C-alpha cells in the first residue's frame, strides 16, 4: 500500500496514512481516462448550433438570368452557396453530442486518475479542514502553507464555511466525495483532501 504524509492546516506533517491500492494503486489506463474526459466535455455541449442550407434561405426562387447568351456563368439561384447571402454547404444542425460510458469504465477511469496524482506526489491529505468563519484570506493561507496554487479540494461534508472561503479563489474548486470526476482531477495541479474524505472514497470505489 502507498503511504502518504498527513499535514495540518499550517502545512506541518503530523503523520502518515496508508492508501488502499484498490483505489490509489491501480495500473493507470490512459485510454479510459481520455474517454472519461471526452465523455464529460461532450455531455456538457449544448449542440444547438444551426445554419441554413440553400433550401432554407429565403428567396432565390427565380433564375437570376437566362442560361445562355449573357457571358455570365450559368446560375440557378441567388441563394446558392457561392452567392453572398446564400445557404451554407453541409450546414451544422442541432444534435446531441453525448455518449454513454459503462459504470465500470467510469470507476476504473477515476481510480486511474487518482492513482496518477498519488504517483506524481500531487495528492495531499489533511488531518482536518475547518474554519471558524468564512474568510478567503484564511483559505489562501492554507494553500500557501501547503505550497499549492491550483487545487481541487475534496470534502467529505458540505462545510459551508470552507466552500464559501474557497469560492473567490479562481484557481481552486471544492467538490464532495460523491461528485469527484476525472476531468477535475486532471485539470487542477494538486488534489487536496481530508482523511475522512479519503476513507469515504476508498469505501465507495474500492
UniProtKB/TrEMBL annotation:
InterPro entries, per database record: Ribosomal_uL4, Ribosomal_uL4-like, Ribosomal_uL4_dom_sf
Domain of life assignment: Bacteria
Gene Ontology BP, a term: translation
One annotated Gene Ontology cellular component of this protein: ribosome
A Pfam entry, by short name: Ribosomal_L4
Keywords recorded for this protein, A-Z: Ribonucleoprotein, Ribosomal protein, RNA-binding, rRNA-binding
Family: Belongs to the universal ribosomal protein uL4 family.
Quaternary context: Part of the 50S ribosomal subunit.
Protein's job: Forms part of the polypeptide exit tunnel.
Name recorded for this polypeptide: Large ribosomal subunit protein uL4
Encoding gene, per UniProt annotation: rplD
